[in-house]
Amino acid sequence: xxxxxVGLSGGVDSSVAAHLLKEQGYEVAGLFMKNWEDQHxxxxxxxxxxxxxxxxxxAAKKLDIPLHFVDxxxxxxxxxxxxxxxxxxxxxxxxxxxxxxxxxxxxxxxREAEKLGADYIATGHYCKKQVYQTDRGEVHAxxxxxxxxxxxxxxxxxxxxxQLRKALFPLGNLHKPQIREMAQNLxxxxxxxxxxxxxxxxxxxxxxxxxxxKLSTRKGDIIKIERKQLEASNGTDNESLQEISQAHxxxxxxxxxxxxxxxxxxxxxxxxKGLNVGGTKEPLYVLGVDTRQNVVYAxxxxxxxxxxxxxxFINNADIHWIREDLKLTPGQERRMDFRIRYRQPLQKGKxxxxxxxxxxxxxxxxRGITPGQFAAWYVNGELLGSGVIA
Length: 390
What we know:
Helix content: 10-25%
Distance between the termini: 46 Å
């Protein structure tokens, strides 16, 4: 009998995943990870890792499976949280959930599971895996889950073939209401628990307060850019790939000082709350940040042209392929579907590879393309690869 170690988090998804695997005939064990306990800046402090562990223990007991415990707090801080601080310091907006999966759930966790004799690891992600036989041998494909409201393949866009080969996703063909009903019928204590929100294993945070653990406050200007000023500076339809993929050069556009902030590194493109500037007809949105000059650029209205771009660039070193057998090489291009944030509907466009990296050119301009986030590319519902937006 093959053994599967499930990441039992104390939530309903992982609990039902363990049940389904047991029903499929696997020998199932749970492994609970303690990854964070510092509550500085955390808004959901009432939900601690101790609470999660208690629910995981109740689920394991109900399912009659053993539960193991591992403390990855030091590694999580080093691999995920410190990375967050570095990226925000640079004026970029990281996605810690993507890093958590790559560095913790499918690396540290997988290694710990191997010590427990696991043939596979499993999580409660809403995605699917399929195995193909190719000329190069067995290939594992990561597919979108059927529940479009919960589909989570995007969060796994940085895992490797080796990591995917040892992973199982029991929930990929199910919808969330089915999971809740199944847990209710099984009498699991996790059946009515709310889904976790915010940063992976940390929860919802007051971001400026959380970041102030490492990043200091520094007064700077908020500069408002008018629509007509930005539109007048826009290029032509014959722009180069470099021009299409670059953020607007807001520092080259005349603007008006409308307020003061406590640090440009606390803001992200598309952000509305936190600017604390009144007197405008429509809300102000962050168009860009300059951490060197400590300037935040803002524009009025959610459809301000400064929020939209035709494309993006990914440095060659930051391009990652799950399907190495399908990767493009410099000089090649391919039409694909793209996603630049969780739950965003797939967007049509083209991936163009050059020596310096990859250019994504969208059919329609995209709102809120954010440096530091991940762009993922799909073909027929399969996630082929991803990269960090420059």
